[in-house]
Design a protein that fits this description.
425 residues, alpha/beta, Aspartate Aminotransferase, domain 2, Aspartate Aminotransferase, domain 1, 13% strand, binds pyridoxal-5'-phosphate
Length: 425
């Protein structure tokens, strides 16, 4: 869709023809009818495009994927049941047992678990790297069997802004694609493809849905990575797939090869598809993404400044603050705003953090971020409680760290609640 981002949020994806519903319909159907056996047969040979079973594709889901694809400026996208399955598919679409991935150390805890525990059990090796290290240092993580580099544009919960171009250059020098999780920045604040990223993943559960209603994920391909130029590394894309009568994805689908393969092979076999009902809800969220994200950022900026000057606060980490270590990177990669999530340490360490969270009124303790309602999480006692102190610090999570997701309520009410809870320490 050749419109600006604000218009794509509202009108992207669903393009009704004459007499069709104005609003994206929920195609609540697992299956699709065909006139002839031959027509159905062609679908199974990938000779014709069409729907046959909602585990692989569903029109509601594909329409929402198209909107996200347009927002990111990609060539093709697919929805998945969650952000986790988006990461899983993005990696396993090009990596199998015996392969290796370079991943930023400070990423979402679920991603670290997926890569270092579950995919490790599947025979995929991962090296975690300090994303702030110089290129010469990062270079050492690459191996002959490295097949992908993975990082988040803004890390959850540490708030590290990635030097995207540094990572893209390294990945490309080693002939592998750069995959970025763009959940926190959203395409409203950052479009990673403009900086050379090859594949983008999202947990649409966060800002895209924005109302804490629907789990979902998305993978978007820029179509720019030349799989054939590195054919020996990516046989799954460049050699015949016997389960489809020997088609070769890059030959048959060109720039769409990566997503097509993930749909017809991984989604077919693993089935982490999004429900059309969730896609419908995510689409309603997307219709206001361009309004909500700037408001989240504006509120977060004011909260960060308030906390910075508060005598019960030990430290604040938010790339929107001019003296933050990631401010310059944020100015470069996300000049219109960072995100609504920040982290800080109340005085009194882990105990102080717990006292603070227990005294909040409007701001709720929930395992979530990036929805309209302000919320907090204390990772050391919630999401990351299985990690020891050393692992916590490696993941960018200090024992006193509070992850605060600033919502779009009235600024004065958010600050008043924070202030009275801090007073309890
Ligand atoms: C939440 C999150 C995920 C996982 O997404 P789910 O939808 O919860 O499965 C992945 N990456 C980031 C950055 C996240 O915040």
């Amino acid at each position: 869709m050749d419109y600006k981002k604000n218009t794509i949020c509202v009108q992207g994806g669903w393009q009704p023809k004459n007499g069709e519903p104005r609003v994206l319909p929920i195609y609540q159907s697992t299956t699709y009818r065909y006139e002839t056996s031959e027509e159905m047969g062609k679908l199974f040979d990938l000779e014709a495009d069409g729907y046959f079973y909602s585990r692989l594709q569903n029109p509601t889901c594909d329409t929402v994927a198209q909107k996200i694809c347009d927002l990111e400026g990609g060539v093709m996208a697919m929805l998945t049941s969650s952000g986790q399955s988006a990461t899983m598919f993005a990696v396993t679409n090009i990596c199998c047992a015996g392969d290796h991935v370079v991943c930023a150390a400070k990423v979402y805890g679920g991603t670290t678990n997926l890569l270092t525990v579950t995919l490790h059990r599947f025979g995929i090796e991962v090296t975690l790297v300090d994303q702030d290290a110089p290129a010469e240092e990062l270079e050492k993580a690459f191996q002959p069997n490295t097949k992908a580099v993975f990082a988040e544009t803004i890390s959850n919960p540490a708030g590290v802004v990635l030097d995207i171009e540094k990572f893209v250059k390294l990945a490309h020098e080693h002939g592998v694609p750069m995959i970025c999780d763009n959940t926190f920045a959203t395409p409203i604040n950052c479009r990673p493809f403009e900086f050379g990223v090859d594949i983008i993943t999202h947990s649409t559960t966060k800002y895209m849905d924005g109302h804490a209603m629907a789990m979902g994920g998305c993978i978007v391909d820029s179509g720019n990575f030349d799989w054939d130029a590195h054919a020996e590394k990516y046989p799954g894309l460049t050699t015949p797939d016997e389960s489809y009568h020997g088609i070769v994805y890059t030959k048959k689908f060109g720039k769409e090869a990566y997503i097509r393969k993930a749909v017809v092979q991984l989604m077919r076999d693993m089935g982490a598809c999004q429900s059309p009902q969730n896609a419908f809800l995510t689409n309603i969220g997307l219709e206001t993404l361009h309004l909500r994200v700037p408001r989240h950022c504006e509120n977060a900026q004011k909260v960060a400044e308030f906390l910075k000057n508060h005598d019960k606060v030990a430290w604040v980490s938010y790339a929107g603050l001019p003296d933050d270590r990631y401010h310059a990177l944020a100015e470069k990669y996300m000049p219109t705003g960072v995100c609504g999530v920040l982290s800080f340490g109340p005085k009194g360490g882990k105990e102080g953090a717990m006292t603070f969270t227990n005294h909040l009124n409007m701001i709720a303790i929930v395992t979530h971020v990036a929805d309209a309602r302000s919320c907090v999480l204390h990772p050391a006692s919630h999401t990351h409680r299985q990690l020891n102190d050393e692992q916590l610090i490696e993941a960018g999570v200090l024992p006193d760290l509070i992850r605060l997701s600033v919502g779009i309520e009235d600024m004065d009410d958010i600050i008043a609640d924070l202030d009275q809870a801090l007073a309890a320490i």
